[in-house]
Amino acid sequence: MSDLMTYVPGTSILHRTRAVSKVLALAVVSIATVVLDDPWLTAAALTLAVIATIVARVPRRILTRQWKAYLLIVVLLGGYQWLTDGPATAFHVAGGLAALLILAGVISSTTRTTDLLDLAVRCARPLKRVGVDPERFGIALALGIRSVAVVLDLARDVREAQLARGLGFSLRAFAVPLVVRSLRQADGLAEALIARGFDD
Questions:
Q1: How far apart are CA 15 and CA 99, in angstroms?
Q2: In the chain, how long is the greatest CA-to-CA distance?
Q3: Given this model, what pLDDT does residue 162 score?
Q4: 134 has a pLDDT exceeding 70
Q5: Which residue from 110, 76, 78 is spatially nearest to 8, judged by alpha carbons?
Q6: How far is CA 25 from the centre of its chain?
Q7: Which terminal residue of the chain has fewer beta carbons within 10 Å of its beta carbon, N or C?
């Protein structure tokens, strides 16, 4: 699985904290950061994210991988907000997003995926009354999480193949093989699920 979503074994207090507590804390920070337009609150969220990263002892290589994926989005969003609404809004939007991405990365690094999926299944059980199957919901969520990692790995393989051939970056030359390989991966997964009766 991609380092973006890798559980890192450890003994920190965040590793020992229950998944539901961490997810609830992230939800509270998310709501507060989005709803309350306060630069001090955004700064506090960023400080909390940095402290959580230090406490969790997330390896540098994983932090680097995470921010290679996130940094461009944060910078582009912040730059757009700066041009349209000024530096205060840019800090609120981009800073808040950065804090939430860091915290989400800390949670994925200190919580086993199975624990997060079990939590999702428990939360979905009340929806059984309206025809939602919690177990299938959990499987679909697990496949979604895994698919993100698979696509990231495929994208890295495609880019490495381009570099090995001495090719520069071309969006079309990158996107076409990535889409084709992703569809082949999806077809194989669908056949495996059908063979196991998942579509019954």
A1: 19
A2: 57
A3: 77
A4: yes
A5: 110
A6: 16
A7: C
Characterize 173-196 residue by residue with b for buried, 16 or more Cβ atoms within 10 angstroms of its Cβ, and e for exposed.
ebeebbeebbeeeeeeeeeeeeee
Residue 183: which residues within 8 A CB-CB, separation 6 or more? none
| Cβ atoms within 10 Å of 18's Cβ, excluding its own | 11
Nearest to 107 by CA among 43, 1, 27: 27
CB atoms closer than 10 angstroms to residue 70: 17
Neighbours of 102 (CB within 10 A): 22
- The interaxial angle of helices 113-124 and 19-35, nearest 10 deg, is 70
Q: Compute φ and ψ for 44, nearest 5 degrees.
A: -65, -40
Q: How far is CA 196 from the centre of its chain?
A: 28
> Rg of the chain's alpha carbons, rounded to an integer?
20
| Structure confidence at residue 1 as a pLDDT band (50, 70, 90) | very low
Determine the Cα–Cα distance for residues 176 and 155; give it in Å rounded to an integer.
11
Q: Lowest-confidence range among 12-21, 34-43, 75-84, 162-171?
A: 162-171
Q: Which residues contact 41 (CB under 8 A, 6 or more apart)?
A: 32, 33
